[in-house]
Design a protein that fits this description.
With 281 residues, this protein is mainly alpha-helical. The protein is built from 14 helices and no strands. It has two domains: 58 residues, no CATH class; 215 residues, MetI-like fold.
């Protein structure tokens, strides 16, 4: 018994060491950006791995100037608007689709499911230029139209996750609701959707992190008129190709704070949502 306990303790200590090293490796780039956001551009180029000293420390000048240069408040509002609405639309329509496909025991439903799965593996570069052309043709090149584009790209993985979770929901609950006179719409919003909360939050986190940090779609479709944060950061590059690294790192730190806070506040639902959908109840 003592030997087994000792082996488990040693294994746990070894796991903690490995995970601690991995955490340091993953956090190091963020800490490096944070550290350099308080240094002048010349010091960032000459000594990027050193702690800010008396001569290199510029206080919050990089933050204030970076906010003004990128018009950060406007970019933040557009990013927030597009991210929140896109995620809401993806969660709503993907959950409805996943529920319908799972409960529809027909060949059509299975092929419909395979189409969404196939959409997960199509590389963005394959459809990048046709998508831009189609978006211009159908006047989707605006903050409202891009919501539809994000729904198309985010639906594949989201429907896949919802389908897996719905399979774990006992169908007897829906049968009882039908006997009580529930319509499909009222059944979904009053019974099914509350039960899908763990996977819905998981889908929301995954898509929010993607949309908030996305550069290509906003840049290609809505351009510079409605700058999101990733697009605004690129405008720190001057006409001669030089970049004020201090301003850029300061803006990047500000940009990642909201999405990191959102992730940490909802992270407990990710494992719960995915594992619950992996076993049929």
């Amino acid at each position: 018994m003592y030997t087994m306990y000792k082996e488990k303790t040693g294994s746990a200590v070894f796991s903690y060491i490995i995970l601690s090293v991995a955490a340091v490796v993953f956090l190091m780039p963020i800490l490096l950006v944070l550290m350099n956001s308080f240094k002048g551009t010349l010091y960032i180029s000459d000594a990027p791995f050193t702690v800010p000293s008396t001569s290199s420390f510029v206080k919050f000048d990089n933050y204030t100037q970076g906010i003004v240069t990128t018009r950060f408040p406007s970019a933040f509002c557009w990013s927030l608007f597009i991210t929140v609405l896109s995620v809401g639309i993806i969660v709503l329509f993907s959950s409805m689709t996943g529920w319908y496909i799972t409960r529809m025991n027909k060949t059509f439903g299975k092929w419909f499911y395979y189409i969404f799965v196939f959409a997960m593996i199509v590389p963005f570069q394959m459809v990048m230029f046709p998508l831009t052309k189609v978006a211009n043709m159908f006047h989707l090149d605006n903050p409202i139209g891009i919501l539809i584009v994000y729904l198309g790209f985010g639906a594949g993985q989201s429907v896949f996750l919802f389908c897996g979770f719905v399979k774990s929901v006992p169908i007897t609950i829906e049968e009882a609701a039908t006997i009580d006179g529930c319509t499909p719409i009222s059944m979904f919003f009053n019974i099914i959707l509350p039960m899908l909360t763990p996977i819905a939050i998981t889908v929301a986190i995954i898509n929010a992190m993607w949309i908030w940090n996305d550069f290509l779609l906003p840049f290609l479709i809505i351009g510079s008129e409605y700058r999101t944060i990733p697009v605004a950061v690129q405008y720190l590059r001057t006409g001669h190709g030089s970049i004020n690294m201090g301003h850029m790192m300061a803006v990047i730190i500000i940009a990642i704070i909201p999405i990191v806070a959102f992730y940490f506040s909802c992270q407990k639902y990710i494992i719960k949502g995915i594992t619950a959908g992996s076993v049929k109840g």
